[in-house]
């Protein structure tokens, strides 16, 4: 067998049983790997009414057939579960080297189920798999536990996925890290892992990946590596990391100022990649086989946080506990907050989202210091954010309420619909640091339609509207028109999102970094098919490649449909559709813009063949994709979704 | 070979998002079948241009112009 390891590991922490399950050719051809394998397991093994923290819930780690090869950026891993934040389908994706190591150890996927009697970690040493005591690691930050496990196992070169205290305390947006700093941030799988008393998974792999056609593989890999050299996005990402977007975001009005009350600020450049590189960048880092090396390592040199250092931050990690909570004057406060969310193991986006929601509730008088336990939640109050992050992670005081996520917190505080207006979520998950009134109408459409809780940039990552202008002719080649490369236009966006969602889903099945295929377009779909076939010896076509992405997308959408989530929940926060963008700086380009979701939604539904009334995947499409059993599952639910009793339910989460 | 009228071409040229409508139209005219319709939507605009050129519905100059200037050029080429 080429490419794949051909088996997955199932670990039952309740019984201590460890099973190796073969993966058939048909299964591998249908789902490829990574996100595809994981989504299939979650759909089939985690029913809609199961509590995500129930021992019977699963959490999956998936890699792909090209993981661990020389293809660009093939070290990624998807982690999937039923999300404790949204109650629906949830996954996240991380870089680093753990994914490649898992492949070398001989596995394409790990499924964890059950609950251990006390904290444990899983140790995978090629074909030897053990469940080991982790009571001494419980409560430790990932950077501490990583070192302790390496010392215990006597090997500095092993790779480890870990949760932090937030996961142990089942914070609904806790996350995981591998190699200490590489996060799989979203949807709260860290809490699911913590609910199983699992601290992490350490891997050592001494095997290799068999390549069917090594010469063809080296030819395509060498060609692609050359293509990256002059690539404009690669150059920007290498030099300044994803913080290279800050000045662009500020100019185009998608910089998330004070919970998206505004889209630009005169001091935004304090945290720009260019400034970061001059002031706090210690070194650059890359993931496995990555030609881009967008990773940063930050060392704070001055001020009250002098001496702190950590891996990161990314744009999406820095802005939520920076400008989104009103902090911009001292960038060291922003770096410090990013390090805190890393240490405690929480999704930086959701952490900033819930704190900024609370700040807006406080600003609007919906809560006072009575509810906050004396904390003054004023915009830009860095001291209070520094206190709140550990409080959320350890579920102390007001932090215990916020640890439930913004929508549940709003309900616990009894704030009604007005409270929910400021949570800025879709299906219970908050959006990242990209205001759709600026970036952009395609992003905004994919926020509404995202299959992991909406409001998420990484479902389509339709960078044809962000970096597309740097690749003249690319929008025309794929979409037939260059005009969609402008963020603030509806032109071509339904097709753009459809195309990019499919492409991104298959990229996630391969487990390669989407920065090589979106943002940078140095690698296009035909290149991915070429290296996939060179590795596996198979004959995937471009159409089959895209169809697999479409299959995965529809399966995930169906998971939501089973939860009675459909057309009525395909929304974005009303701030974006109702409030015109105010001016923040005089060169801002999107003043006055509102986001016109409804203009694009109908056409997008047609591309997806979603039913107009329910928004459920259509029966014909499901059968075309080989998902007959899904069509059968949804058949009795269509009329239920349209019933009067369902229509009356206001669902902010599930 | 004229697949559409100039009025129809103008209509497509003015659309915000044309791909699905154009593919549906071409299928209704028997220019593409269901399989090709799907292939084009999955792969992108260039696949449509490639197909039309292979079938000699457009010539190589028109195909190049379509790839250089986009779909509005293509629909007017189909209305010739």
Largest sheet of chain A: 6 strands, mixed
Helix content of chain A: 40-55%
Task: State the oligomer.
Answer: heterodimer
Count of domain modules of chain A = 3
- The tally of strands of chain A reads 17
CATH superfamily of the largest domain in chain A: Aldehyde ferredoxin oxidoreductase, N-terminal domain
The biggest beta sheet of chain B reads: none
Q: What CATH architecture of the largest domain in chain A would you give?
A: 4-Layer Sandwich
Structural classification of chain B: mainly alpha
Most residues in contact, chain pair and counts: A-B, 28 and 21 residues
Number of individual domains of chain B = 1
The percent range for strand residues of chain B is under 5%
Structural class by SSE content of chain A: alpha+beta
What is the radius of gyration of chain B? 11 Å
Give the N-to-C terminal Cα separation of chain A: 41 Å
Total number of β-strand segments of chain B? 0
SSE succession of chain B = HHHHHH
Characterization of this structure:
- The complex is a heterodimer of chains A (654) and B (80).
- In chain A, 40% of the residues lie in helices and 12% in strands.
- Chain A is α+β, with helices and mostly antiparallel strands and 654 residues long.
- Chain A has three domains: 7-204, Aldehyde ferredoxin oxidoreductase, N-terminal domain (Aldehyde Ferredoxin Oxidoreductase,  A, domain 1, 4-Layer Sandwich); 250-430, Aldehyde Ferredoxin Oxidoreductase Protein, subunit A, domain 2 (Orthogonal Bundle), CATH 1.10.569.10; 448-521 and 541-648, Aldehyde Ferredoxin Oxidoreductase Protein, subunit A, domain 3.
- In chain A, the strands form four sheets. Chain A has a six-stranded mixed beta sheet. Chain A has a six-stranded mixed beta sheet with strand order 8-7-12-9-10-11, with helices on both faces. Chain A has a three-stranded antiparallel beta sheet with strand order 13-14-15.
- In chain A, α2 packs across α21 (493-510), α2 runs parallel beside α23 (542-562) and α21 crosses α25.
- Chain A is globular.
- The model of chain A has no long low-confidence stretch (mean pLDDT 96).
- Chain B has helices spanning 6-13, 19-28, 34-43, 45-54, 60-69, 71-78.
- The termini of chain B are close together.
- Chain B has one domain (6-78).
- The longest helix of chain B is centred in the N-terminal third of the chain and has 10 residues, at 19-28.
- Chain B has six helices and no strands.
- By secondary structure, chain B is an all-alpha fold.
- Chain B is globular, with a radius of gyration of 11 Å.
- Classes of the chains: A alpha+beta (654), B mainly alpha (80).
- Chain A binds chain B through residues 473, 476-482, 490-495, 498-499, 502, 525, 542-543, 546-547, 550, 599-600, 603, 606-607, and chain B through 16-20, 38-39, 41-46, 48, 67-72, 74.
